[in-house]
Amino acid sequence: MMRMLGLMTALLLTAAPAAAADDDPRWVFYSRDTTAYTSPWYDGAHRTMIGYGCTRAPYYPADSRCGGGRGFHHGIDVAMPCGTPITAGRFGRVVSSAAYGPAYGENPLVIRNKRLGVDILIAHARTVYVSVGDRVTRGVSLALASDSAAPDGCHLHFEVRSVAGGLDDAQRPVKLLDRVPA
Ligand SMILES: [Zn+2]
Q: Residue 5: inside a domain, yes or no?
């Protein structure tokens, strides 16, 4: 029995570093926050890759709100392995994402919550399980994370705008992400 426990411990120890194999080699972290967070919006616990607001990340044009030629990121990017399930963290209705440009990937998803007065945008999704007009409640499967239009690897781009708002109506999204340190 002791020998078997020893073997199991050895297996667990050797298995542990395998989690790192899920890391996307294209990820570059432009956030000082190294905490992994859980959220009702996705499975597992993951780190912020690019926060909301002015950023040194090179993917965005220089913005007058930011000094030093930095660009403005309108959402929060959470690095997660390709295929990570994304779930609804709030009640809402799925509305059309046709107005969103190609930067958001092939299948962006917009959840409208009129009570909160917001559209919640899920970008870079691959497989989408819901359709325009669907009502979703917390916990409903929405999509899988992917790298669609994301040269920096698979991640969730989580953006919040006022209802039917444009890019200039993007709001600080972190509160609605409902994160908890893992
Ligand atoms: Zn982003």
A: no
Residue 57 lies in a domain: yes
pTM of the model: 0.87
- Rg (C-alpha) for the chain, rounded Å, is 18
Instruction: Identify whether 1 is part of a domain.
Output: no
140 DSSP 8-state letter: -
44 domain-assigned: yes
Range of the domain at 149: 20-181
Distance 4 CA to ligand 1 centre (A): 47
Instruction: Give the whole-angstrom CA distance, residue 16 versus residue 25.
Output: 18
Q: Per residue in 69-128, pLDDT tens? A: 999 999 999 999 999 999 999 999 999 999 898 899 998 999 999 999 999 999 999 899
Residues less than 5 Å from ion ligand 1, measured at CB: 75, 77, 157
Q: How far is the CA of 19 from the centre of ligand 1 (A)?
A: 24
Domain count, the chain: 1
Please name the amino acid found at residue 111: I
